[in-house]
Structures are given as C-alpha cells and as structure tokens.
Amino acid sequence: MIIQFENVEKTFNSKKMQVHACKDINLAVDKGDIFGVVGYSGAGKSTLIRMVNALERPTSGRVTVNGVVINELKGKNLRKARKDISMIFQQFNLLEAKTVFENVAMPLILNHTPKDEIKRRVNEILKFVELSDKTDTYPGKLSGGQKQRVGIARALTTNPSILLCDEPTSALDPKTTDSILNLLQKVNRELNITIMIITHQINIVQKICNKVAVMEDGYVVEMGNVKEVFARPVQPITKAFVDTVVDQTIPESIFAAAAAEKQNSRIFRVRCLNGNVCDTFTPDLRKRFTAEINTLFMSVNEMQGSVLTIIGLQVKGSKEQIREVEQYLKENFESEEVAV
Ligand SMILES: Nc1ncnc2c1ncn2[C@@H]1O[C@H](COP(=O)(O)OP(=O)(O)OP(=O)(O)O)[C@@H](O)[C@H]1O
Ligand SMILES: [Mg+2]
Is the distance from the beta carbon of residue 21 to the nearest atom of ligand 1 less than 6 Å? Predict the structure, then answer.
C-alpha cells in the first residue's frame, strides 16, 4: 500500500469550541488506485486528504505515505516527501499574474531546476493535458476546465507518485467534469500515479474510482471496492448516495398495482453484477420454477466496465412456490424483499 491511515484522529481546538473532524480513521490506498472519498459538507473529507501531505497533522494516530510516517516529518525531510505528493483544488489556485507556462513551471522554479529542463518538462506536460496552444495565456482568459488542466499540469511537473484531488470538478459543468475525469484517468493509467479524490458527487466515484470510502460526521462508515459498495450499500448514507446514480426504485404505479395482490404474491429486488442479464434473467427463473414471475422494473448501470442490473420482481403462487424462488434468489444473487 502507498497510503495508510492508522487510528487517526484530528481535533481542531479554537477558543470557543472543539471540532472532532476525523475520528478513528483506518484505511489503505494501494498503488495504482483511484480512491474516492465521499461525504456531505463538513464530514471531514478535506481534513483527511490534507493529512496525506501533512498540511494537517493528526491529533493522534499515524499516516504513512510511501513507507514513511509523514506526520512525523519536518523541514527538509517533509519537503522531500511532499515532492512525491501533488494536490489540485476546487478553485484551481492559479497565480493570476503569471502565464500558463509560468504557473506550470512554478514547482520546478522553486526546486531550482535548470531553465532548459524546465522548458522541456513544461512543454511536455502541457502537451499531455492538451494545452500546448495556451502556453502564454493568463488564467483570466481560460475556461474553468482549462484552469483545472493547468492545475493538473502544475501538479505533474515534479513527477509525483500520488495526486490528491480536493473536489476537483465541483466548480465545473457536467461536460467539462467528464473531460477532467478522463484526464485524471489518463494520469492514473499512463503515468502510474495513485489518485485520491474527494468529492460529494458520487457519480464521479462511479466513473473513475476503483475504491471508495464514505465519510459521515468524521468517521469512515463504509469502504470497499466501488463495484461491491454500489451493488450492496449497507449504511443509510451510502444507500442515499448510491440511489442518486443507480436507479433502484420500482415505479410507484407499477408497485402499487403489484402490491394490491399481496394475498398470493411477494415483491423482491435483485442485484446482479454479472454482465448483461436483461434478456435472460426472468425467462431463466420461469424455466426453473412453477410460480408466476413478472418483471416490474429493471435498471442497467455501467460500473467500472461491469454492468450492475437491478431487477424488481413480482413472484405469484402458493407460499411454498414463492419460498422456492426466494431461496434461489438469496443463494445466487444479492436480493431483498420489498415490503408492501
Ligand atoms: N482549520 C480548522 N479549524 C477549525 N475547524 C476546522 C478547520 N478545518 C476544518 N474544520 C472543521 O472540521 C470539520 C470538517 O471539515 P472539512 O473541511 O474536513 O469537511 P469537508 O468534508 O471537506 O466539507 P466540505 O464538503 O464542505 O468541503 C468541519 O466542522 C470544519 O468546520
Ligand atoms: Mg472539503
């Protein structure tokens, strides 16, 4: 693993009050991950990510980055460790009075890199983020998406192994968001950079992350592979997040009609993460069982190259006939009964 939090607590003490921003955080980010952290405002996300490069230090516990306990480093050693960890921000944090070239060059200038080398490196990176034509432009003349590309370019100049992103697309429209997410994916795949990304938009996690941690009130309340967490969210907050991108609700009127038959029928919701089952799922069940089986609802969701299908089923028949189907669904899929 490249980043590890062990029993991390962070408390802010001000004159008036104490804020316990991060509580009992234990998590590991592996090399090559795009690790998403989601949560509502004030959950402690920014505090958490800022402890990775020691912009904040834990009140207790350890944050290990690349094998070094970063919260114990100071001075030269800290500066050295930070060269390997870059960060981008929601508000881009560009220098308005400097050109794109100068903004991107800044980390290299601060490192006393020779001029020729700076020129070579900056032009190479600007090409990578597709901004070669904006070299001499000032940030004021750029769109939000272009500004974030400059932010990303600046973050890449020092060849980091980790890129921290705090709400990188929150100031952007959906189309621009997509182009920035594609760029982050390219950064991860082509440059082998591990990415940690903080967001309150779960669709960003769905699009590019392989792992996710859900934060609520300072705690990480749920964590795992994105596919698994999306297929079976456990905590109410995770369900609420996943609900906004994965449609799992049987339409009201269809549900009401099916629920009206509750004497000899029950309703189930099934989740399949096994490729495309749209055509085959219900016909297969009908072949296996004597109960009458109706598809009330189906939603098909792309998830990291896999397909997550959510199916609402009405099963009609005798108690025993329905129980057989229920048993089979339980053993072979993620399923639950929907109360009528
Ligand atoms: N420097 C600080 N001093 C005092 N309290 C702070 C400080 N930084 C953060 N906090 C508090 O810690 C809590 C968590 O803040 P944090 O910024 O980590 O949340 P967040 O999840 O990033 O929220 P948002 O989505 O709004 O950015 C909040 O209650 C915040 O007010
Ligand atoms: Mg924040």
Answer: yes
Q: Is the CB of 144 under 6 A from ligand 1?
A: no
Domain positions in the chain are 3-243, 252-337
63: three-class secondary structure by DSSP: strand
Give the distance (Å) from ligand 2 centre to CA of residue 181.
19
Please tell me if the CB atom of residue 39 comes closer than 6 angstroms to any atom of ligand 1: yes
Q: From 3.30.1360.120, 2.30.110.10, 3.30.70.260, 3.40.50.1980, which CATH number describes the 252-337 domain? A: 3.30.70.260
pLDDT in tens, 123-172: 999 999 999 999 999 999 999 999 999 999 999 999 999 999 999 999 99
Closest CA to 4 of 34, 28, 33, 31: 28
Residue 248 has a pLDDT of 85
* C-alpha 324 to ligand 2 mean position (Å): 49
Is residue 55's pLDDT more than 90? yes
- Per-residue pLDDT, 262: 79
CATH architecture of the domain 3-243 equals 3-Layer(aba) Sandwich (3.40)
For residue 98, the model assigns a pLDDT of 97
* CA gap 323, 320 in Å, rounded: 5
Residue 273: its pLDDT value, please? 84
